[in-house]
Amino acid sequence: MKSRRPSPILGVASAMINEASDTLVSGTSRFHHSFEASVEMIQPDPNQPRKIMSDADIASLAATMEERGQLQPILLRRDLLAKGRWFIVAGERRWRAAKRNGWSSILAIEHDGDPEVASLLENLQRVDLTPVEESRGLQRLIEEKGWTQDQAADAIGKPKSDISGTLRILTLPADLLEAVLTSELAIPKNVLIELARVDREPARTQLLRIARDGHLTVRAIRRMKDRAAAAPIGDDPKPLTGEGTCGVSFRSLERVAKSLQAAREAGCPVLGKERDCLERLRREIDELLQTPNVGA
Fold first, then answer.
1. Which partner for 105 in 36, 64, 75, 249 could form a disulfide, CB atoms 3.0-4.6 Å apart?
2. In the structure, what pLDDT confidence band is assigned to residue 295 with cuts at 50, 70 and 90?
3. Is residue 250 assigned to a domain?
4. Catalytic-residue membership of 92
5. 35-63: per-residue pLDDT in tens?
6. What is the DSSP string of 210-260?
7. Does the model's pTM come out above 0.85?
8. Residues 108 and 223 in one domain
9. Res. 14 pLDDT band, cuts 50 70 90
10. Is residue 83 part of a domain?
11. What CATH number should be reported for the domain holding residue 156?
């Protein structure tokens, strides 16, 4: 009886299966398979930390994806109320770019973990997330999860001091935060955190004014804080009275002088109404010093 020769087709198929088995993800793998999801069946997450997405940025990303393809899948979670539909966990900019290019599908991975944590983590890793978006997203996550700052630090993988500083940004005035959010003011995160830690007046008011003018630095803040800490604490004494006095609280004048010295040494610019006020003060001081018997 003749032995049957092995089929060359089956041999090739067997070799391909063996080769593929080395690269395919098994059912017990910790990694999820990527798949093509219909662009029209996807919708953004309403709780997305990033609130500002410029058309120019989306157009630039769309051009890159059109030229090089989609290099990284987006993360999706199932919409439990609508079969076949998805919410974006991370990757909304890529989805918007795909829509702009007219793509019918986009590469995705299903995410079954905590979507808020995953979304925030991806956004925190982006360099173009504003400090206000980061701090608001972090605050929302802590409130919704009922976390302490220690728990948030463990989940996100950052020191508690960084979590505390980021949240402190939200204590700054709303108009300043809005200007940073819309990129009207380009104030770095470390400057905002340092500014938020200033709670003594009038240093805080003066630093906020400098911040709104776009000239604030960490060095200026720290010098101002040092000067404020060295200034005397307590109510001003009653104005001096009697012959040879001008009825002015000299302790108040000493504080003004120290504040001006701190601003000068910190290199703080003098702009607008502040300059007008200082020029008027200089004129009044010059005229007062020219008055006979002053200081006698």
1. 36
2. very low
3. yes
4. yes
5. 899 999 999 877 665 666 778 888 988 99
6. HHHTT---HHHHHHHHHHHHHS--SPPPPPP-STT--S--HHHHHHHHHHH
7. no
8. no
9. low
10. yes
11. 1.10.10.2830
